[in-house]
Amino acid sequence: MELLTSIGQTIGSLEQIATSAQFADAGLFSWPIGKLRVPQWWRAAGDNHLDKVFGYPNVMAMVHTRGLAGLGLLLPGASRAQRGVLAATMCATGYGLQTRVPYGFDGSDHFAFLNYACAALEKAFPHDERAREAVVTFLAAQACLSYFTSGAAKLVSPVWRDGSAIPRIFRTATYGDSLFYRTVRDRPWLAKAVAWSTIAGEMAFPLVLVAPRPVARGILAAGTAFHLGNARFMGLNRFVWSFGATYPAVVHVSRTLGRGSAESPPAAMARKGMTRNGVTRNGVFAATGAAVVAGMAAHRAVKRRRGRMRASVPGRLVRVHGRDVHVLANTRVGGTGPTVVFENGMACPATEWGWVLAELGSGTGYVAYDRPGIGWSAAASVPHDAEWSSAGLRELLAAVDARPPFLLVGHSVGGVLIRCFARRHPELVAGLVFVDSSHPDQLRRSPGQRQTLPWVRQRVTATWLRAMAGTLHQREEYRPFGSLPDGMAEATERRMAAPGTWWATRQEMRYWQHSWSPDAARLSATSQPVAVLTAGETVRADPAHTALQRELAALSTVSRHDFVTDAGHNALVMAPEHAPRVVEGIEWVRTRARTSELAHD
User: Fold this and answer.
1) CA 146 to CA 202: how far, in whole Å?
2) How many other C-beta atoms lie within 10 A of the C-beta of residue 553?
3) How far apart are CA 435 and CA 572, in angstroms?
4) Whole-prediction pTM value?
5) Which is nearest to 122 in space by CA: 134, 133, 132, 137?
6) Do residues 365 and 403 touch, judged by C-beta distance below 8 A?
7) Angle at which helices 247-262 and 129-155 pack, to 10 degrees?
8) Within the chain, how many helices (H) and strands (E) appear?
9) Do 251 and 175 touch, CB atoms closer than 8 A?
10) Which of 223, 362, 414, 462 is the most buried (most CB within 10 A)?
11) pLDDT band at 274 (very low <50, low <70, confident <90, very high)
12) CB-CB contact of 505 with 346 (8 Å)
């Protein structure tokens, strides 16, 4: 392991010496720029001290030291103690260089650090076989975990699953290859095959620990070929050495596991007074008992979680066809005019309208609710396509005694859903308000939104996985909810950290594309008044957004279109300073709707 790692790192040090100008103040790895990213507690030691170590040309002493230490590990005759000192030197210089340049180095340098740390630690226990075995086992586990997580990250990425990531990578100047790029660009099937073989190979790598020897050898050979291919086509030559250096540890642990299973024959059990039937019976009893205990614990945990969720509900839960639906509603009012019904943006619960609801007049009836699986609403066991969503909304409005007609307000993808409802129930709709709404045709006509959609899907999937692992810090992930009224902000942020919300969002993205938008496009005109509010930041980010928003206003001959220049897509709804603009649009439609109703009377 030391030998293979040192070959790669010595080559790397020679490369850095040959291109030392990149460490100069005007180079790619400029220290005056790089030190801005140094942790504050390091900066507290004084910039002068840091400059003496990391400034150019002083930093090259670290590079030369690293090259000499790597070369020393390649030379024969060094004692265990000397190799331990050299490995520790490689760790120290590696950490120093990665601190000096927090970008630009790849995973091979990170794994080289790990290899040398294990090598130095192993030298500290020359007479303790168990400690040495533990170090080797740790390194093998790290290698398997590294491959598996790399494959899992690709698996959840849409651009890897459809193969489009391969030509995107190989068309770059940094990691590209013109011949390979042209080959996969013109053959999408080949790009997809390369992507999926990479995913399968990386995720299958941990099987090397338990697979039969011929299969394990095949996996290691495939891994070696993978890194050699990366060295040839992507220039990642040091990966061959850093990751290949872990293979001896992987093979050793694999053999150890094989010996462990071979050293438990039936005769050994008989010597201990155990029979095969007894072991089987006791195993079944133990497994059954463990399953019962685990089931009871899981049941109690679910009950406690449901209790906490119900206690945190800012509105109320309404039972509709055996499913809890979270609503914020005020339907028992004496005022006149239509009831305002709110459809939320993607992944957003009804609390996103907190400031807007606070600005509505006391005589205005309203209903805001969470779609299935979002916020505090229970998930639906049936596909919630456009037909189901419209029918479910009508049933909910009846359950909360909401009085028609309804003034529908939709934010983001909610604007698509209110069109679906208005198309089916025009007699119940008094008007429409689109708040920086999605357009049914936006993915076809907006290159920017079409290109970013795979990354949005990937981020939603990654957020769901982080929520499942309990590592999602919602205050960082979804800042807009922090601006909601005090009674809603904290509860909403906690709820947004629940995995169910992000799983439901994954499903909604599919329905949005394949059901909601095509259905909404069938509403090409309406006789009801329409108000459109467009966020200025969205327009600046996507020039096609303006034309799409104007088409929403053109749905009716009685319409208005307002641009809120200093508002973002989410802030237009959730920021207190923009809520009056949304309420102004609602009141404009309410007034036109009442005028039209009186005219008909």
Assistant:
1) 9
2) 16
3) 8
4) 0.60
5) 132
6) yes
7) 110
8) 30, 8
9) no
10) 414
11) very low
12) yes
More confidently predicted of 45 and 421: 421
Q: Judge contact between 119 and 87, C-beta under 8 A.
A: yes
Q: Are strands 323-330 and 339-343 parallel, antiparallel or unpaired?
A: unpaired
Contact 512, 389 (CB under 8 A): no
Q: Bridge-partner residues for 411, per DSSP?
A: 435
Strands of the sheet containing 406-411, edge to edge, are 316-320, 323-330, 366-369, 339-343, 406-411, 429-435, 530-535, 559-564
Closest alpha carbon to 110 in 8, 201, 253, 204: 8
Specify whether the backbone of 294 is left (phi greater than 0), alpha (psi in -120 to 50) or beta.
alpha
Please state, in angstroms and rounded to a whole number, the distance separating the CA atoms of residues 483 and 451: 30
Query: To which residue do tokens 């945990």 refer?
Result: 301
The widest CA-to-CA distance across the chain, in whole angstroms, is: 104
* pLDDT tens, residue by residue, 405-437: 999 999 999 999 999 999 999 999 999 999 999
DSSP 3-state of 295? helix
Asked if 568 and 537 count as a contact pair (C-beta separation under 8 A), the reply is yes
CA dihedral 89, 91, 95, 97 (to 10 degrees): 60
User: What is the pLDDT at residue 357?
Assistant: 95
- The token pair at 275 is 């029979």
Element (H, E) at 132: helix 129-155
**Strand pairing class (316-320; 339-343):** unpaired
Give 310's pLDDT tier (boundaries 50, 70, 90): low
Q: Which two tokens stand for residue 1?
A: 């392991």
In whole numbers, what is the pLDDT of the chain averaged over residues? 85
The predicted model gives 99-124 an average pLDDT of 82
d(CA 103, CA 212): 40
Angle among Cα 402, 404, 407 to the nearest 5 degrees reads 95
Predicted confidence band of residue 105 (pLDDT cuts 50, 70, 90): low
pLDDT at 284 over 80: no
- pLDDT band for position 33 (cuts 50, 70, 90): confident
- pLDDT at position 234 is 85
Residue 236 in this model has a pLDDT that exceeds 90 = no
> Which strand (E) or helix (H) includes residue 319?
strand 316-320
pLDDT tens column, 573-591: 999 999 999 999 999 999 9
How far apart are the C-alpha atoms of 473 and 493, rounded to whole Å? Answer: 9
Beta bridge partners of 166: none
Q: Which long-range contacts (CB under 8 A, 24 or more apart) does 222-229 make?
A: 223/147, 223/247, 226/198, 226/201
* Portion of the chain with pLDDT greater than 90, in percent: 53
Question: How far apart are the C-alpha atoms of 17 and 71, rounded to whole Å?
Answer: 14
What's the average model confidence in pLDDT over 519-541? 95
